[in-house]
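To whoever is on call:

I kicked off a structure prediction for a single chain this morning and the downstream step that reads the tokens threw a length-mismatch warning. I double-checked the sequence; it's 105 residues and nothing unusual in it as far as I can see. Pasting both halves so you can look.
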Amino acid sequence: MIPEVWLGGLLLGLVTYASRSLPLLVNLRPSERFRPFLDAVAPAVVAALLAPALLLADGGWVAPWQNPALLAALPAAWVAFRTRSFGWTTLAGVAAYAVVSAWVG
């Protein structure tokens, strides 16, 4: 492999490690004013990742009743809301996707 690629990968790894470990090493804690904003980051990131995957199929808009991923996400979301368990939610989503994809085709 090209030495520049190795060097680039090494530098990216060092920067990533430093950016994640530096706050722990110097004991940086966010102020309480920023806590509500930081608590909203994870749900916003998950929504930003899931929305295109659920609403677009094969790179384009598909009617909701013909989109197995969107239809399977509905019972999975219900299980997530009721159980608050990642394992049960994953199991419900996989099972729902298998049933819906066989039904929708």
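Update from on-call: the warning came from a stale cache, not from the record. Cleared it. Sanity check on the structure: The CA atoms of residues 45 and 51 lie 10 Å apart.
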